[in-house]
Give the backbone structure.
Amino acid sequence: MFIDSHCHLDFPEFQTRLPEILANMKAAQVDHALCISVDLPDFPNVLKLAQDHPHLYASVGVHPDYEDTPEPSLEFLVETAARYPKIVAIGETGLDYFRMADRSYDSLEWQRERFRTHIRAAIASRKPLIVHTRSASADTIRILKEEGADQIGGVMHCFTESYEVAKAAMDMGFYISFSGIVTFKSAKDLQETCKRVPIDRMMIETDSPYLAPIPYRGKTNEPAWVAKVGEYIADLKNIPVEKFADHTSNNFFQCFQIDRNLS
């Protein structure tokens, strides 16, 4: 019924709980999940999860928050994405100026160059991008345009920006993915944006172990709880939850080029 388009099942919070987490997914009718790479040393663990479980998929990439970590080359990303069928996306990549607010703009050029490498790898490998942007939406959209990201598209994950940013991304073929943040009482602006994003351009996610939705806020998030995100948005948009689940699942399979009949 539902799909978690972005989670981190390789993180330490899940190491002793994986059978329970997968059982909870099944009970909540969360049929698939995409496990996201954030750095190269931990990438093998992400890949193994996808290879060991038919209903899990993987990405390859390095998060913009990770400065002191091996840098991914264009060749590595392209070759790795081609080698393993369970890798369905490049990322997560993007820009994050929030956690580095005390740094000068010029000192963050490494983030922008890393982002460009990922975009070029996505285009070369024909795999969609998973984009993280925080306090950097103008540069994110600018670089996506400059690098021709509309050739491949992807998803703006854990979206918290304005509708104007969402529209600019959708115009380049990107989907907009909402996390548990949209359920928070303080997220009124995001809820209004969510109302305006059409369901044929929308996905849902947990970003677990972070950002648990209401009524689990403050707890360790898990993929099963993406159902709460879906139920909340269906109610927000005043559409049947089954219709919303079907649309967002179809969007997932279309974006990541997965044959739904074989999944």
User: Anything to note?
Assistant: The mean pLDDT is 97. The radius of gyration is 17 Å. The first helix runs from residue 18 to 27.
